[in-house]
Amino acid sequence: MNEKKSTTINNRKGIHSILEVFLVSLRLGFTSFGGPIAHLGYFHHEYVRRRKWLDERSYADLVALCQFLPGPASSQVGIGIGVMRSGLLGGIFAFIGFTLPSVIVLILFALFVQGFDVGNAGWIQGLKIVAVAVVAHAILGMASKLTPDVKRRTIALFAVITTLLWQSVITQVVVIVVAALIGFWIYREQKSPEVSNMEVPISKRFAIGCLSLFFGLLILLPFLREITSIHWIAVFDSFYRAGSLVFGGGHVVLPLLERELVPVGWITEETFLAGYGATQAVPGPLFTFAAYLGAMMNGWSGALLATTAIFLPAFLLILGTLPFWGLLRSNPKIQAGLFGVNAAVVGILIAALYHPIWTSSILNTADFALAAVLFGMLVFWKLPPWAVVLAGAIGGTLMEFML
């Protein structure tokens, strides 16, 4: 009887812990505006300072791991905290809570866009101009941290030129690999920081299984896409590959998704950029942009498929690397390669700012003037992203009647 009673108490504690993780992450999902860097600040305040679920050093190590991995860093940090707090289910419910609010809002926005003829509306143009200001702002912040010296700025310049002259997904993968090799060669003698031991309730065998599944899907999906010609497999492959190859945060996913979806006619470039602008107005991870794109292609089912596909690599990678992070992070060779990768990310983002964002959004001097105002609102006046998006929509509407 005592064993049964103890098991029941432990189950209740487990359920309570998982529910707590979900409710806390849900509140963060409703209130975390400002992009990945801001999200990490919200997480630090909630999980480290207020609830003390992990200490400062463990949080810093977890953030470092997620910056090292491809995918949405803030979402991976949230998943990692959920895992360390309540195991695998804790990670799943932490992800659902943080992601659900913005997913629902963006699906509803996509259905609204589909239901009305808004293709030439002024506020749509305004949202496209918002994307210019937001990405330019992101580049400034990332460049100051990721390219602090001439060598890394040179790597970024190499990434800009290569990505613009040979525009394909394969080009971006090659750029990242070459940048990693260059970074290893230049910075291989640099000392690595000390690391702390993080307690992770995941076995190394399970972690290896997650990593095997990650690479297996990355290799297998393109073959299935070619052999079967099934539409949903092609969609899943495009979003899964985008989620697997994005280094540097949500903004970098833009050129990957644009080149996967627009040329094949699954979505127009106009509605693509309008949705990207709208994504800046909602809290939560920028990767929920996939929910909008999926909904534009095939309603609610398309949104669920696209969202699952783009976030699945993040899940598999964080679960697969958490048990090994201490060993990886102390390796100076990996740290050196990461310096080069991060610099290349800045270059890829600059190329994306020019094409497709700038070339599709800044069509005249009035558009440039509005972009300058929106950029000033972000950089000089430090206004929240939702206010900038609202100003962009209003500005685009006013220009439609004035010009």
From TrEMBL:
Q: Where in the cell is it found?
A: Cell membrane
- From the record, what ranges are coiled-coil? none
**One matching Pfam family:** Chromate_transp
Endoplasmic reticulum found in the keyword field = no
What are the alphabetically sorted keywords of the record? Cell membrane, Membrane, Transmembrane, Transmembrane helix
Q: Which residues cross the membrane?
A: 21-42, 62-81, 88-111, 123-143, 155-186, 206-224, 273-295, 302-328, 334-354, 361-380
Keyword Membrane attributed: yes
Membrane-protein topology: Multi-pass membrane protein
Chief subcellular location equals membrane
Among InterPro entries, the record links this protein to: Chr_Tranpt_l_chain, Chromate_transpt
Task: Give the family, as the similarity comment puts it.
Answer: Belongs to the chromate ion transporter (CHR) (TC 2.A.51) family.
What the entry lists under PANTHER family is as follows: CHROMATE ION TRANSPORTER (EUROFUNG) (PTHR33567)
Name recorded for this polypeptide: Chromate transporter
Its source organism is Evansella tamaricis
The top of its lineage is:
Bacteria, Bacillati, Bacillota, Bacilli, Bacillales
